[in-house]
Amino acid sequence: MQHQLPTHFRNAVPAFDKPHYELPTRNVLGLPVVDTTSEQAVEALLSGAARSVYFLNAHCANLRAKDREYASALARADAILPDGIGVELAARMSGGGLTENLNGTDFTPALLHAASRRGMSVFLFGARPGTAEQAANKLATQIPGLRIAGTLDGYAGAADEQNAIDVINASGADIVLVAMGVPLQEMWIDRNLPDLNARLVLGVGALFDFLAGNVVRAPEWVRKAKSEWVWRLMQEPRRLAKRYLIGNGTFLARAAVHAVQEKSNGAVAKRAMDFVLSGALVLMLAPILLFVAALIRLESKGPAMFRQERVGRNGETFTIFKFRTMHTDAEERLAAIRAQSDRDGICFKARHDPRVTRVGRWLRRYSVDELPQILNVLKGDMSLVGPRPALPREVAAYPGVAMERLDARPGITGLWQVSGRADIGFDKMVDMDVAYVRSRSVLLDVMLLALTARAVISGRGAY
């Protein structure tokens, strides 16, 4: 049913008073996906850079591969915004990441905040009866000055398509949000865009349900960890298990094939393997990672994640991610215990390091502390297989022969890790890493990954 809010919400004031803005894009799975910041995208869309705007996530990409009508609608979109870690991974497989995740649940309210400052109006169309009205009231509360032109549900209100168009046009809305779910909303917009008077029409999925409180969003720290899909899966396991547990793996495989087809050589094949396997690991292990983070925080104060500058390929530095296994003052205490090192050479390693926490010893024993480095692999700083990532002070003291280690991306595992880890001296570690750099191949990586499982179970050299 249609719901008209008070007239002081509905007086539309067109505000496209700035010059036309271009939306920079990056090719992702053959689609031009917007590659810019949220602020720049908002400015461009409100300045007339596009009319039809859709969001692309892993589920959307899977549907596109099977639904020709939906694929055609996406191809005709004026703008496609990246939604979620899956699209980011697909972009990186093809040679570069995206500037920002522009998911609809966060991006659309930001767009409406800017629209309210311009005196623009918005119409909410879709969802179950009453949901669009509740979402509109929430938006009016959260965004003072936002003009709500009206609402219309996606059931009885959408049954007569021409009547729905007439109601929307009569409202004088500048922006229309369509929430029918993928792919119905995109096909509805694609079919009816020529008859709509609004300057901007967005397909927003479950946004109305989030705003109305029908669906609870994940806590901010879960969203920052890019694990909101895990939260959704926990809320609706029956409905979403196939989409996330099977669909995400299917998407990553499809993205990898696309990347290899774009540019087929050894380096791309290795990179594609890195992304597919590490991406699958992130998806499968996300609940475990969150559990481990909670254990660390329960035992000792401080962040669960440990960040440290390391040296990567060609001597470029990057920030490595690991679970924190030591007390937070570990770096300050290093000088006092350096003489206790069990390893000859530059790298410090002590079997009974007093700085390690009780949880930390368990994490090290089974190499669980290394798991967050999967994120470094996704970012492109590291590979699944490669030389050990060194500290800047270690590289500064390298002998000449050791510099060849820097010709490859550092890895989570490698010859050193599967051969004994901390039980191996520095000179032998360098020899192993140089040997790997000179003979690296996808086949060798596969063999080392298989050997890594045995090394983790045995725990040899892990301390």
From TrEMBL:
Protein name: WecB/TagA/CpsF family glycosyltransferase
Domain of life assignment: Bacteria
A Pfam short name: Bac_transf
Sequence intervals crossing the membrane: 275-298
Entry keywords, A to Z: Exopolysaccharide synthesis, Membrane, Transmembrane, Transmembrane helix
UniProt record similarity statement: Belongs to the bacterial sugar transferase family.
Record InterPro entries: Bact_transf, WecG_TagA_CpsF
Species per Swiss-Prot/TrEMBL record: Thalassococcus lentus
